[in-house]
Amino acid sequence: MTPSLAIGYLAAIMGTVCWIPQAVQVWRTRDTRSLSLMANLMFLVTVILWLIYGVMILDVPLIVANVVSTTAMITIVAAKLKFK
Amino acid sequence: MTPSLAIGYLAAIMGTVCWIPQAVQVWRTRDTRSLSLMANLMFLVTVILWLIYGVMILDVPLIVANVVSTTAMITIVAAKLKFK
Predict the structure, then answer these.
(1) Closest Cα to residue B40, out of B25, B22, B65?
(2) What is the pLDDT of residues B24-67, one digit of tens each?
(3) Nearest-angstrom CA–CA distance, B50 and B59
(4) CA A26 to chain centre
(5) How far apart are CA B42 and CA B49, in angstroms?
(6) Would you kindly state where each structural domain of chain B is located, as residue ranges?
(7) pLDDT in tens, A6-27
(8) ipTM reported for the complex, 2 dp
(9) DSSP designation for B58
(10) What is the dihedral of CA B33, B65, B13, A80, to 10 degrees?
(11) Is domain B3-82 classified as CATH 3.30.420.10?
(12) DSSP 8-state secondary structure symbol assigned to residue A18
């Protein structure tokens, strides 16, 4: 594996798991006041678009990563809408 | 442009600008309590890694997108560390 490919994979993995602690925190504390609804909604749309793109080009890593991200982001946006 | 490419570009653009409203909100309200430091730090590292990857493979769209994302994420993480 080339150094650039290793960095690309590391970025992809980190970008996939990084929203899990945010999802856990909002449901544990029920506090979402400082989360921007606009930012989180836009990012939810972003990961759904990446998922659709992954399905269209049949790219398995892109699909797997964006199923995880979409799940985390739905959890965060749901908390934001529920605990205002 | 193919439909999949159009969706890929839309995802890239949306994923680049989406954190700007969050950055504006935390500095305007000085409230960062519900932001997960872990999640935002990991995402900052993610966009820095994508930026390094973009520089290594000389991909201009990747560099431009991740300069914007890195700036937004530094702004958010700085607010989180300053306004505890």
Answers:
(1) B22
(2) 999 999 999 999 999 999 999 999 999 999 999 999 999 999 99
(3) 10
(4) 14
(5) 10
(6) 3-82
(7) 999 999 999 999 999 999 999 9
(8) 0.91
(9) T
(10) -10
(11) no
(12) T
Say if the Cβ atoms of B7 and A36 lie within 8 Å. no
Polymer length of chain A = 84
**Which residues on chain A place their C-beta less than 8 Å from a C-beta of chain B?**
3-4, 7-8, 10-11, 14-15, 17-22, 24-26, 29, 31-36, 38-40, 42-43, 45-47, 49-50, 52-53, 56-57
Q: Which residue does chain B place closest to A55, by CA atoms?
A: B4
> Token pair of A78, please?
């749901």
Overall residue count recorded for chain B in this entry: 84
Contact (CB<8Å) A46/B18: yes
B21's CB contacts (< 8 A; 6+ apart) are: A36, A38, A39, A42
Q: Collapse the DSSP code of B81 into the 3-class scheme (helix H, G, I; strand E, B; otherwise coil) and give the result.
A: helix
pTM score of the predicted model: 0.93
Q: Look up residue B73 and give its two tokens.
A: 């994420």
